[in-house]
Amino acid sequence: MSWISAGVRHRRPVVSIYYRNSSEDKWPAQIQDVKTAIRFIRAHAAKYEVDPERIGIFGRSAGGQLSAFAAQNLPGYDTEEWSDFSSNVQSCIDMFGPADLGANMDMEQKKFADPKFRWHKLEDTHGGALIGGDPATIRERADAASVTTHVNAGMTPLMILHGGNDPIVPKEVSSDLLYQKIVDAGLEDRCEYHVIPHAGHGTREFFQDKTKELMIGFFDKTLKK
After folding, report:
1. What is 175-202 written as a DSSP string?
2. How far apart are CA 53 and CA 63, in angstroms?
3. CA angle, corner 165, sides to 217 and 130, nearest 5?
4. How many Å apart are CA 54 and CA 90, to the nearest integer?
5. Residues 6+ apart with CB under 8 A from 151
6. pTM for this prediction
7. Contact call for residues 32 and 78 (beta carbons, < 8 A)
8. What Cα–Cα distance (Å) separates residue 103 from each residue in 117, 161, 173?
9. What angle do CA 51, 54, 57 make, to 5 degrees?
10. Span 79-112, pLDDT tens digits
């Protein structure tokens, strides 16, 4: 699930959006849905009393990956609905999203020989199910859905939060790689990367007051005029 935070004068409305999962459609349907939701909010900004110039997005896990992808403000993923409005965002928080699907697949593939491992084919992994199509080319096509391959100068301010002990999406094959790509692009002044000590994948450390205050502070800093 992804959430969109839209700035208003005295409050922070939050919109929870739905996107098609991998059992319903394959990439890039998911990012198209997210961008459609952003355009919908802008098209109805007056009705919902939001500022269309101050829209932030955040999500957890798969929602984090989509949020970070949307934060790149890339063209080419917009559909016809509300096409007169922009799908760009002005701020983003990525919570332990799998930012590099290929690196995740490489990590998982090394475990296929273990009979106790949950998957034994790339097409059965979360990333493989998302990409779909010919199993022989899933790995090479994973780059198209990886945030790490799309970092660019149009990226909005981005906060990355990742658990130091995440066993499902280890930071070494995800957020570490994304942050390094951002640094390599000379955009580190737009990014905050916080590793949450002892946290796993969406564990309680992400819901403690200290983490919530960190997130609210980032949105206040990047969305308030």
Report:
1. HHHHHHHHHHTT-GGGEEEEEETT--SS
2. 22
3. 85
4. 6
5. 72, 178, 181, 182, 185, 187
6. 0.94
7. yes
8. 17, 18, 5
9. 120
10. 999 999 999 999 999 999 999 999 999 999 999 9
